[in-house]
Amino acid sequence: MKRYRPHILVVIALAVVLSTGWHGALRNALTDLRFAWQSRAASGNVVVVAIDAPSIDQIGVWPWPRRLHAELLHRLEGAGAQEVAFDVDFSTPSDPSSDEAFVRALREVGGSTILPSFKQPAGGAVHINRPLKPLSNQSWPAVVNVAVESDGLVRRYPFGEKLGDAVMPSMAVVLAGQDVNQRPPFLIDFGIRAASIPSVSYADVLRGDAATLDRLRDKKVIVGATALELGDRFSVPNGGIVSGPVLQALATESILQHRTLRWTSDAGMMLGLGLICLLMMYSWRRVAPGLRVAVLVAAGASVELVAVLVQARWPLVIDTSLIHIAIIAYLTAIALDEIDFRRLLGRIAESRFHRIAMSLGDGLVCTDEDHRITVWNPGASAIFGYMPAEIIGRPFESLCAVPVDGHARRFSMRDAARQALLVPGGAVVVEFEGRRKNGETFSVEASFSGWQGADGFQYGAILRDISVRKREAERVRYLAEYDALTGLANRNTLHAGLASLIAAAERRSSEVALLVLGLDGFQQINDMLGHAAGDLVLRAVAARLKVEAGKAAIVARLSGDEFAIALDCACAGEPVAEFAERVARAFETPLVTGTRQHRVRISIGVAVCPEGGRSADDLLSNGHLALSRAKATRRGGHVIFESAIRQELENRLTLESELALAADRGEFELFYQPQVRLVDGSMVGAEALIRWRHPARGYVSPGEFMPVVNTSALSERIANWVMETACRQARAWELSGYIVRVAINLSPSQLHSGDLAHSVAVLLAATGLTPSLLELEVTEDILLHDEGRVLDMFKRIQELGVRVLFDDFGTGYASLSYLKKFPLDGLKIDRSFVLDLLADSDDAAIVSSTIGLSKQLGLTVVAEGIENRATADFLVSMGCEEGQGYFFGRPMPVDAFEKQFLAAERESVSAA
User: What is this structure's pTM?
Assistant: First the structure.
């Protein structure tokens, strides 16, 4: 089969060429080349009268009046022209007089003029354009259509075409005096140079130029357009473009010179193909490839030379396309037979691999089967520091560091190569310690692979310096487990350590303690000295905690100023409470940070497993709860978690949830407690007090829910509701004729969240309440925060006409300077001083001094908690003007208040 492979290739090539039609293109190309090789001149018997650009310039825009064609005919007849053919459309009428003049001229010259007919596509159909009947009666008809081939060139010329029922001869056939005789189209001999065909200008003939007319004597004349703007042009072989009249002249010359070319039969070509195939089959293994190539080239040149000579001597064209294709196929077969493609592809692949290897950023090293380095790219030089000349030929193991640990096994290239052969895909990734040229060791990641090469088995490794990556990974791991600022364990590490301690303690039935520590006043250090100083303090705290906790404990930083210590109680050597006290006392000594000393106290929450939780999460949660209790009750000390602490928190959360629902469902009410003038017992006002009507529990004591309200997000919402509801009620009483001054307790959230003075002004405007009937009671703790802002706010409130009273005076931490500094209208003596006023001389002295001081400052005094007449009379004797308490009336709903006090007041007025 192998011996017939070249001939099968030739047969396949010929079959492909024949099926695709490529041989036709080659045949045309060869014929066109022969025209270029055997150029010849025209006979000169055919002259073109050109409707050229100079003629258009002289005569005018085309088309011209046909009387000019009549004059031209007379000029041509006078010059002695033999036949005249017009390549001009005469199928439509023009000016009647011009048409009549042209008919007369045709008749006068004896009817020997040839006028054209042609087919023209029109909307999918073919329309035949013929000369007008009067014109055709005085002339010879001829077809001027030519066929344009698939490559856009004109090569063939028809002897005639069937127009309607009759066959009409072509213009060149009529001019040459030939008969149609149903002959097929012929190949125009484009070896005749188009430039050698004589041509004269239409305008020169019409003008009667003697030299021009002499050139027309005894000539065959074709009149037609050659000007570019008239567009009658055709593409011909060898890149030529000719006008329609010149193409007709070339066809006429071909007929006159007996050069109507025709293809020879295919028998000669098939014979030539057979001879070449037999010659190659005989000589394929008997003759050297070079001699076979010479024979094929000589055969191709000989065949083409014969074809050129035959075409030059006779009007015959030999088709040699398939012979040349067969010769090319045999030359290709010889080349394929002689080239070692496996070695060639191997060299190409090796060259490509070498280019890629040299451009890689990673190190690439190849070795032979003895693991000696054969390829070393620039990336490897950058990693290890060796130049190729220094390392090529040395064992791969020379790149590996010797283990510091004598028991550790050194990296083996042989083992890596063996793994690469066993792994599917032929690649294995390993890490080893490399050694640079300067002796430095570093981590290397290598991807090994192996393959069968031309010189035996070979190995390759892509090498990366991963020392930076490993350092970054170690840094990431450290940051994931330790606090970056203090170096202590972070929350995640503490959680894992706690879990391990709990598991170990459960096996030994011992306890695990978790101390959650918070710094007291740390925010002030940040605010006053900056975060850099705060960071130094945190580092100092961490260092002291590690010293106090010892090596057996886990010391961690949980968040900004919170730390934790986890330890096994069995290893502590002292009770947990004493350990916590010792840690707290350790911070009685100032912390030294640079040139500064800081006194920092810590509060500690302690949770002990199992009582304080059986998991790490439980201990952390309960430790934080204990810390919160310590900060609230024992700053600088410690609190050990008890279940009551969590129960209290859960109760608070439940209460907050119920309070939110109560606000949405409108379960809050305002009760009013009367305030009276102590001298005569007449009512001067009422204090608005909030009550909660629980759907299941009934009325809930304010002492139970108000502390939660004042420290929750509901505080401002509920306080605003109280103020708005009380103001609307006071306005309703005012409109009903009752002048009742309503006192409202302010919430800290109302002062801190916005502009209270503006809110009061808006509320007064919305309700229409007289400002003097609104009284705002403020406690001392509100005045302690943001003193300047609060002072300005109360001045603006007082300017509105609203009264401002100091509530629960004497129970807080404010100094007497607040009575002078703040815009107050009065103060209320706390009930704790009034209840035992008659029995306790200290209370009496405080109340008496407060009343005296208030009078000197011009402030109204209201005493709270009056429960009997004797206390009221005693207060009157001290100079107290107003009071409230159960003696005068308990807090009550609006209806009860109106019925008991307002109705009674109306009755007393009526009686008077």
Answer: 0.47
